[in-house]
Design a protein that fits this description.
148 residues, mainly alpha
């Protein structure tokens, strides 16, 4: 039986896209999640690609009934995505919070390094935003790990 691409419902952090891709490719989903975080930090099109995959790729339970993407189902897919986002915002998983914290730290470090390379001695205000991102990421991770 051929492997099918699906969005995981059992190992999802946000939409199950990374876990489904990991299962399809035979890679640990953590590496795919890290890839998406780094891709987002570098300013590429990772967020639109993730959302597109979230809409197009069927859920794990739909693969068994051979559900395929059709354009007339687009509205239903967006409603399904909206309900999944509501569920995530009401009860975010600790993994999602940790990945968000790590992402904020990495984003802050990236911008600090970028500003350091283009160092302007007379203006230090460009360091405030990256420093705040790093501090927020550290606080999110500390708060999440203390709850465990």
């Amino acid at each position: 039986m051929a492997k099918r691409l699906y969005r995981s419902e059992s190992n999802q952090v946000l939409g199950g896209v990374c876990a489904g891709l990991g299962d399809f490719l035979g890679i640990d989903p953590v590496f795919i999640r890290i890839f998406f975080v780094v891709w987002t930090i570098l300013g590429e099109f990772s967020v639109p690609i993730y959302i597109l995959l979230w809409v197009i790729v069927p859920r794990e339970s739909s693969v068994d009934v051979n559900e395929k993407f059709e354009m007339n189902d687009l509205g239903a897919r967006f409603r399904q995505m909206g309900s999944e986002i509501q569920k995530i915002t009401r009860q975010p998983s600790s993994e999602l919070i940790v990945f968000a914290g790590v992402g904020m730290i990495a984003w802050g470090v990236y911008y600090l390094v970028d500003e350091y390379i283009n160092l302007n001695i007379w203006s230090y205000s460009q360091y405030i935003w990256p420093a705040l991102l790093i501090i927020a990421g550290v606080l999110v991770i500390i708060r999440t790990t203390r709850k465990k």
